[in-house]
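From the methods appendix. Each design record in this collection lists the tokenized structure first, followed by the designed amino acid sequence. Records were kept in a plain field format so they could be parsed without special tools. The example shown here is representative of the layout used throughout.

RECORD:
FOLD TOKENS (332 positions):
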């Protein structure tokens, strides 16, 4: 009798632990689109979903890399416009629409200027005024002509999806997760984060917002989210310094110079990564006052602005979800 009870106890313990065992975690860490990426997902179908998501990111990189001679963007930029793939047409029309909406603060034709600053080949230099003035003649989203699945660019014009591709790819990853039945995942494509569902312990995902002034990579705060993309742009990660002056990789298309205003970083929180990616870049170019105005006039997203003064500004919609040891101003 005692023996049977013992066996039953062992079986019950086994059943209990197997029922309450945390869902299995699958993750992949890889380098793509010129940055480090990490995708983690939980549950039975997670492993399959994670490898599909990674493959998808790698496919999109092959299409959109501006430096890979076999990419579609490279072909467009070097005068042999191919029949555009559906993915490229979709991203192109999204970036053109957002360029117009942000009044050109985002401009996917900035590439000739970016190249002159040496950001594309990591050979940094400061171009002179006249060189920039010439190159700016080759910049302008409104000059891009799309006819069916063909694109027409003036001689010397070039496209660059560097400010939008990672956000777009994060949405694709989230779609793949959902199609595979994954309920909990954290997709981090070089700082373009998509938090799917909640953590397996039922809590919201906690996403750190970097403190651009911190030398030890501390966070300025943490935003708690579920089913949201969180994307930060700033010039504190990719920049170079010459004669004591710092030049970042986000260019103001109106001047041809790296954006340099009262902001250190812009974090956008919204349902879609593609919107977050484009807006974080555009609002960083705009500066605080214009960024706040853009938010009031357009809505559809929330944001966290970190100013050069060290102050943090957070829109009312996520003020409750944002915690920081610092003084936070609320944007209404
Ligand atoms: P990161 O790619 O470092 O995460 P962003 O999303 O802000 O940062 O994108 C910056 C990239 O976008 C640049 O490296 C460049 O390829 C491109 N870019 C720079 N300035 C602009 C701009 N004003 N509009 C559109 N794309 C830009
Ligand atoms: Mg961006």
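DESIGN:
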């Amino acid at each position: 009798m005692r023996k049977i009870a013992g066996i039953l106890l062992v079986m019950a313990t086994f059943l209990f632990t197997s029922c309450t065992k945390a869902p299995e975690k699958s993750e992949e860490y890889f380098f793509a689109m010129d940055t480090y990426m990490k995708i983690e997902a939980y549950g039975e179908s997670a492993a399959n979903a994670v490898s599909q998501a990674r493959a998808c990111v790698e496919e999109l990189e092959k299409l959109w890399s501006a430096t890979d001679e076999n990419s579609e963007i490279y072909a467009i930029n070097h005068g042999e416009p191919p029949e555009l793939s559906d993915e490229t047409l979709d991203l192109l029309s999204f970036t053109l629409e957002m360029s117009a909406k942000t009044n050109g603060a985002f401009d996917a034709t900035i590439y000739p200027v970016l190249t002159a600053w040496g950001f594309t080949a990591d050979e940094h230099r400061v171009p002179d005024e006249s060189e920039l003035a010439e190159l700016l003649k080759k910049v302008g989203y409104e000059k891009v002509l799309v006819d069916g699945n063909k694109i027409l660019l003036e001689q010397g014009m070039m496209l660059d999806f560097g400010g939008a591709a990672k956000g777009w790819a994060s949405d694709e990853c989230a779609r793949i997760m959902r199609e595979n039945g994954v309920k909990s995942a954290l997709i981090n494509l070089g700082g373009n984060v998509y938090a799917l569902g909640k953590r397996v312990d039922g809590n919201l995902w906690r996403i750190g917002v970097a403190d651009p002034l911190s030398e030890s990579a501390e966070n300025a705060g943490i935003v708690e989210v579920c089913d949201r993309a969180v994307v930060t742009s700033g010039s504190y990660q990719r920049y170079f310094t010459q004669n004591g002056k710092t030049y970042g990789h986000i260019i103001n298309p109106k001047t041809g110079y790296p954006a340099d205003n009262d902001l250190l970083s812009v974090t956008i929180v919204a349902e879609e990564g593609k919107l977050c990616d484009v807006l974080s870049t555009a609002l960083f170019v705009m500066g605080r006052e214009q960024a706040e105005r853009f938010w009031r006039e357009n809505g559809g997203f929330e944001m966290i602005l970190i100013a050069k003064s060290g102050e943090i500004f957070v829109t009312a919609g996520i003020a409750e979800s944002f915690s920081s040891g610092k003084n936070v101003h609320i944007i209404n």
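APPENDIX NOTE: The pocket of magnesium ion (ligand 2) is lined by residues 163, 233, 277-278, 280-281 (CB under 6 Å).
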